[in-house]
Write a structure and sequence with these properties.
The complex is a heterodimer of chains A (528) and B (336). Chain A is α+β, with helices and mostly antiparallel strands and 528 residues long. Chain A is built from 18 helices and 21 strands. In chain A, helix 5 (69-79) packs across helix 6. The relative contact order of chain A is 0.09. Chain B has 336 residues and is of the alpha/beta class. Chain B has a seven-stranded mixed β-sheet with strand order 7-8-9-10-11-18-19, with helices on one face. In chain B, strands 1-2-3-4-5-6 form a six-stranded mixed β-sheet, with no helix packed on it. Classes of the chains: A alpha+beta (528), B alpha/beta (336). The A-B interface holds A 12-16, 65, 67-68, 70-72, 74-75, 78-81, 84-85, 88-89, 149, 416-422, 448, 452, 455 and B 139-143, 260-267, 269, 271-272, 303, 305-306, 309-310, 313, 330-331. Chain B: GO terms for molecular function: exonuclease activity; ligase activity; RNA endonuclease activity. Chain B: This is Ligase-associated DNA damage response exonuclease.
């Protein structure tokens, strides 16, 4: 654990990318294979199975520290991280073992097979033989969620440096459903057949928000289609099987069984990038799709009520060949040929091209996006290859302007992680007759300086506390931006927003002029 | 409860002696525990502090204030009260103030720490019936790094930077923390440069006989090329400012008790966080309170709610008092 703890400390102590990459590359060159593999797994969002509930961990840590549980619970929101709270309250270790990372993960797997008393003994013994940083990392493994400020992209760069392999090839190798239990360092990283895994998707090409329309050149250089409001997905058809991946590298195959039919209509060795949409004579709003995605198994009734299609954007693999290097125009032509002769009941559609003579004409089409249940337009340079990850220049998303309302803050709660001790999570209300009705929470969009100012204000103006939540007088007015609005019987306001965030702090806006609940219901009637 | 001291709008008040301790509104007579801005405020009729705290208080509040000084342990009769000042270990000259009337003893801690920092007069427990204590870090997650480990961490950071030709920019409060760090670091590594706010306080403390290593004020004319690898001490607010950007290349560090929390450390966006505070940690607070032998404890600033409940659980008659002291500022306010 010492080596991994040292790596973590170096990563945690610097904001410089070069230092982070160098530290990881050194780890990948010096650590033992099992530790390297786990490091790659953890930094790419994979983690060992949960051995114990966090409730038990809290109780055991408080007991070991000699403090009552309530005091531990008071400390947790101040620290903002459970594993760190535990590492901080425990007394210093009394022994030292010097065992590597993979040993401790093996220990977790051993404990998972034992009864609770034995697990407790094992975890207390581990805490007692690890220093504060190691203890924090070990407890992070116990609680899951291992985000430590290193993106998968950065980790892959370090891996490329350490192994001399190509960045993109490694990115591809790391995709898919592997875990350290199902593979080894040599077969995952060192083996030379990148297509060994039939299910393996390609890294998604992601677009940035359009920055400068004037720099685009003539519209004719661009292939333009709608930015559909569904879930981005990649359909992989190889060897008679199909696999469906979300952008978050989650395998969704079983949740969307209707797409299995495509195996009968498309040749093996086909990979399509597209958008999953709930569909009945056209796209349904996003919340219809959410009903389908939210559950692991799909009852027949729901399958009939909310059918799903894949709206195809791009073709990445044809006849088993990776064609991502070809220009978009060629890929699109091949995609069109592939989709052209499909019968209408097959759940695959081609995302139609949107044309306009000028950017102004296209801007008008974009402005009407919500009428098509779309979020805006996608601009893709006709000559562009299909790149990996978020890249600027060839692909842009040109989203429709968000909807906005002015609302007042009524509750505040402290954030987690780097926002611990800072009030950043707010509940907002609109006017409703003489009173206020809460309708959304939001926690992003402001600067650190603004959050600090609001934190000072909340401390001085707390009316009442409900656990970690503070009620404040309705005084601070914010413009809340959001992407969509839908009916929600679960909420008092009767509505729910999509991607709400604080667009700005309206120091200039008097409380009397904020929006009302009836304004929200009008928006629901228009856009819901 | 019998009131040797009471809590008023203006601050902690002694009716028997008609004076206030560390008041936050103008009053005729103020006894001051130490020179930090939230304890020593302008506008009082008369002041009283220790001899060692006086130069900084004069420096900050002006030479013309009416300031009576005393030495540690000396008893002074004020009205029907007997008062004395005792080392608090917080910054040079800082005191706990003991007040006795009719055989009843109350002590106001001001800000304090129980660890000897090698600079301030070390904390001495004072027996009392009622203890008015701060609890800035009154949660069990706050446990400070031992002083020698801290010295080692800062020196090796500075040494590595100096070897790589980088400046080491270290943010610390200008009264107390900065001088404590000056006495911890190894002046052989490279030159030590200071921001004006810190150099002013250095000058005051040096003139009262406190030894500090050689430091050099950063002026617009200073030749930085001949001083690469230097340690640059600056108040927290100067880190990340235009003033700080002249030191290139640099590694930045921040010295505060809050650096014990990873979230706060990351928010500060400094390269390094050193856990160092002039306030007592969890163990320090509990040890200090126990050593007074007091039955009744008032907590003034910090995590007052949970700390009071913890003390009540331990059998103390514990209360929260609302004051306007800040403790150690979380997000880089200057000097508290």
């Amino acid at each position: 654990m010492k080596g991994f703890a040292r790596l973590f400390t170096t990563l945690d102590q610097t904001t410089r990318t070069t230092v982070k990459v160098a530290a990881m590359a050194e780890f990948f060159q010096t650590a033992q294979d099992a530790d390297k593999l786990w490091c790659v797994a953890l930094f790419s969002g994979r983690r060992p199975r949960r051995v114990i509930t966090t409730t038990r961990l809290r109780e055991w840590a408080a007991e070991r520290a000699g403090v009552p549980l309530w005091l531990f619970e008071e400390s947790y929101p101040v620290v903002g991280d459970l594993a760190e709270t535990i590492a901080l309250v425990l007394p210093p270790p009394t022994t030292e073992t010097g065992k590597p990372l993979s040993h401790w993960i093996g220990e977790l797997q051993r404990l998972s097979k034992l009864d609770e008393d034995a697990r407790k003994a094992g975890i207390l013994a581990a805490w007692d033989s690890l220093d504060r940083t190691e203890r924090f990392l070990f407890t992070k493994l116990l609680t899951g969620g291992f985000r430590i400020g290193v993106s998968q992209k950065l980790m892959t760069r370090a891996l490329a440096q350490a192994t001399g392999q190509d960045d993109a090839a490694l990115t591809h190798k790391l995709m898919g459903s592997w875990t350290p239990e199902t593979t080894s360092w040599s077969s995952l990283i060192e083996a030379h057949d990148p297509r060994a895994d039939l299910s393996r998707p390609y890294p998604f090409y992601l677009a940035y928000q359009l920055e400068d329309r004037d720099a685009l050149g003539p519209p004719s250089d661009w292939f333009i289609d709608r930015k559909w409001d569904g879930i981005r997905a990649q359909l992989v058809l190889r060897g008679g099987e199909h696999h469906l991946w979300s952008r978050g590298e989650e395998l969704m195959t079983d949740r969307l069984p209707e797409l299995g039919r495509l195996v009968d209509f498309l040749p093996p060795g086909t990979v399509i990038d597209g958008e999953l949409l709930a569909w009945r004579d056209g796209p349904l709003p996003f919340n219809a799709l959410q009903k389908r995605i939210g559950r692991k198994s799909v009852p027949k009734k729901l399958l009939a009520e909310v059918p799903v299609v894949l709206m195809a954007y791009d073709l990445l693999e044809q006849d088993g060949r990776d064609i991502r290097e070809k220009p978009l125009t060629d890929r699109r032509a091949q995609l069109e040929t592939l989709v052209a002769d499909l019968p209408p009941e097959v759940p695959l559609r081609l995302s139609p091209e949107v044309t306009g003579d000028s950017w102004n004409a296209l801007a008008r089409i974009r402005a009407a996006s919500r009428d098509h249940n779309a979020e805006g337009l996608m601009l893709k340079r006709r000559s562009s290859p299909y790149l990996a990850g978020r890249k600027k220049g060839d692909w842009w998303k040109w989203k429709v302007d968000p909807l906005t309302v002015d609302a007042v803050m009524i509750y505040a709660q402290a954030g987690h992680g780097r926002r611990a001790n800072l009030f950043t999570d707010f509940t907002f209300a609109v006017r409703d007759g003489d009173g206020f009705t809460p309708f959304t929470k939001a926690y992003s969009g402001l600067t650190d300086a603004e959050f600090r100012e609001i934190t000072r204000w909340v401390r001085k103006n707390t009316l009442q506390r409900f656990g970690p939540v503070r009620q404040v007088p309705p005084e601070l007015v914010f413009e809340i931006a959001f992407e969509g609005i839908q009916e929600s019987p679960r909420h008092k306001s009767g509505i729910a927003l999509r991607f709400p965030r604080m667009a700005r702090w309206r120091h200039d806006k008097p409380l009397a002029e904020i929006n009302t609940l009836s304004d929200l219901h009008e928006m629901l009637a228009q856009y819901g | 409860m019998s009131g040797v001291l009471t809590f008023t709008e203006a601050g902690i008040y002694c009716p028997a002696g008609d004076f206030w301790i560390d008041p936050w509104r103008p009053v005729p007579r103020a006894l001051i525990t130490h020179g930090h801005a939230d304890h020593a405020r302008a506008g009082m009729g008369r002041y009283m502090a220790t001899e060692a705290a006086a130069p900084v208080i004069r420096h900050r509040l002006g030479g013309s204030i009416a300031l009576q000084t005393t030495t540690y342990g000396a008893q002074t009769r004020i009205g029907d009260a007997t008062v004395s000042f005792h080392p608090a270990g917080h910054v040079p000259g800082s005191a706990q103030i003991r007040v006795e009337t009719g055989g009843e003893v109350w002590v106001v801690s001001g800000d304090y720490k129980t660890v000897d920092d090698g600079l301030s007069e070390p904390f001495e427990p004072v027996a009392c019936h009622s203890f008015i204590t701060e609890c800035t870090f009154g949660l069990p997650v706050f446990n400070w790094t031992p002083q020698e480990v801290l010295a080692d961490q800062i020196n090796s950071w500075w040494r590595d930077n100096a070897a790589a030709g980088r400046f080491s920019l270290l943010g610390a409060y200008s009264l107390g923390k900065a001088q404590r760090l000056l006495r911890l670091v190894d002046p052989e590594i490279a030159p030590i440069l200071t921001h004006g706010a810190i150099e002013n306080t250095n000058a005051v403390l040096r003139s009262q006989g406190i030894a500090l290593p050689h430091t050099e004020l950063v002026t617009p004319e200073i030749d930085l090329t001949s001083r690469t690898g230097a340690l640059v001490l600056a108040p927290p607010s100067a880190l990340g400012s235009a003033w700080a950007r002249r030191f290139k290349p640099q590694s930045s560090g921040f010295a505060s008790g809050w650096m014990a929390l990873r979230g706060v450390r990351r928010r500060r966006a400094a390269d390094r966080g050193f856990i160092v505070s002039d306030h007592a940690d969890w163990t320090g607070l509990n040890d200090a309170i126990r050593a007074t032998g007091a039955d009744r404890v008032f907590v003034t600033h910090g995590y007052t709610g949970p700390f009071r409940r913890w003390l009540a659980d331990q059998g103390y008659d514990a209360h929260v008092v609302s004051t306007e002291y800040d403790g150690e500022s979380l997000d880089g306010g200057e000097d508290e």
